[in-house]
Amino acid sequence: MPRQQPEIVVVGAGFSGAVVARSLADAGHRVRIIERRGHIGGNAYDDFDAHGILVHRHGPHLFHTNSARVFDYLGRFTAWRPYEHRVLSSVGGKLLPVPINLDTINGFFGLDLTEAEAAAHLARIREPRDPVLTSEDVVVNAVGRDLYEAMFRNYTRKQWGLDPSALDASVAARIPVRTSRDDRYFTDSYQAMPADGYSALFRRMLDHPAIAVECGVDFFTVRDRLVPRHLIYTGPVDGFFGHVLGRLPYRSLRFEHEHVAGTGSFQPAATVNYPNEHAFTRITEFRKITGQAATGTSIVREYPQAEGEPYYPVPNPANQALHHRYRALARAEEDVTFVGRLAEYRYYNMDQAVGSALKVAGRLVRALS
Ligand code: FAD
Ligand code: UDP
Fold it and tell me: Does residue 35's CB lie within 6 angstroms of at least one atom of ligand 1?
């Protein structure tokens, strides 16, 4: 370790840590980032596989936001490639659009409805729930039991190891229901991929004379030797406190990457979901997202699991209650700021992580100056 103590230590080089680090460095502070993994970028990290295809090592990452502030901030470090994500779901031998739209409804029920007729059809088959508390409530309330069981129930059980009735409404509410023919996964005003990939974006963001990055170092192995003026922690909040109140559940995934030689296209959409078949939830084909030209194509299958890298907080009342107790401990740490998907235990998309980090950084710049 360098002898000089860094002014600010940031734990984690994902979006949250990188944005706070860069903002503090831009404001004149010296920052050291400590990252457990061998690379920067957190879960958004990408690199070229053995076949020269740019792949996302921690699962497919599609950038979308309604925030001009977030989009413009990241635009300092990357050019963008416009990209709108589309997803099909394998249901009853057909590939139907997700989110549910007019074509999903017609394809699933074997009908030929107009938009207005589809809305009337959903109004007939939905099972009204009041209040809407769980992910099951959200879906059956909108589209009824048949579509719920075909497209949501088993996918959710696989992904989370929980029935949708045991998960907050917010999880399934990420996926809207439409009666139009819009088949885009997201409707945000900005939808784009970093032109040279996420890792290149992170390299530029962290390329600053006042930022030092150490990868392959677990904070807890060096914690005792560090006496920073302020610490920013973006890892799992329960881990920071030695799990003193018990373990906060995080859902993990195993990624199976595969290269398919000799073809330009493996599947008809960038992502195909498999709610009812296979142990994996979905297959994503990277070239369809990045637009890269090549003769072969690379895909990834996502296998959910309980153990391993903490990828997702698991939103439900019991876990939120435990998180609130950890949050009280976190708030009592005056010289530590907790920010990010793992530290705030919030199911943030990338833009939300960046937005939260920008807010925190603004506060810190004022407090530390
Ligand atoms: P992370 O990216 O998790 O970064 C935290 C970093 O802290 C990690 O690199 C970790 O190694 C490090 N760390 C933890 N503990 C320690 C320690 N003790 N010492 C040192 N370092 C430590 N969002 C979207 O907007 N669009 C998508 O399409 C999308 N797809 C996703 C797909 C998957 C499979 C997953 C898991 C997430 C996806 N996300 C997506 C969400 C996105 O990954 C997060 O919003 C974002 O990565 C959050 O950034 P973060 O910095 O808070 O956390
Ligand atoms: N979901 C589902 N079926 C689908 C797509 C999504 O049941 O075809 C549910 C599932 O519970 C999933 C959640 O909706 O975890 C959110 O989906 P999203 O694609 O946003 O998940 P992420 O990309 O964050 O893994």
Answer: yes
CATH superfamily ID and name for 7-40+206-249+315-368: NAD(P)-binding Rossmann-like Domain (3.40.50.720)
H or E segment and range at residue 258: strand 250-260
Cα of 354 vs centre of ligand 2, distance in Å, is 21
Contacts 24+ apart (CB under 8 A), 261-264: 261/51, 261/295, 261/296, 262/295, 262/296, 263/296, 263/297, 264/294, 264/295, 264/297
Distance separating alpha carbons of residues 59 and 268, to the nearest angstrom? 19
Taking the centre of ligand 2 as the mean of its atom positions, its distance from the CA of residue 345, in whole angstroms, is 18
Average of per-residue pLDDT values in the chain: 97
- Whose Cα sits closest to atom 12 in ligand 1? 12
pLDDT in tens, 94-127: 999 999 999 999 999 999 999 999 999 999 999 9
Amino acid identity, residue 352? Q
Q: Which ligand is nearest to the CA of 163?
A: 2
Nearest CA to ligand 2 atom 13: 172
- Which residue is closest in CA terms to ligand 1's atom 52? 340
Numbered ranges of CATH 3.40.50.720 in the chain: 7-40+206-249+315-368
pLDDT per residue as tens digits for the range 67-89: 999 999 999 999 999 999 999 99
Ligand 2: residues within 6 Å at CB? 89, 98, 151-152, 155-156, 159, 171-172, 174-175, 273, 275
pLDDT at 2 over 50: no
Residue 1 is predicted with a pLDDT of 42
Shortest-distance atom of ligand 1 to CA 59: 34
pLDDT band at 369 (very low <50, low <70, confident <90, very high): confident
| Per-position DSSP letters for 55-90, written without gaps between them | EETTS----EES-HHHHHHHHTT--EEE----EEEE
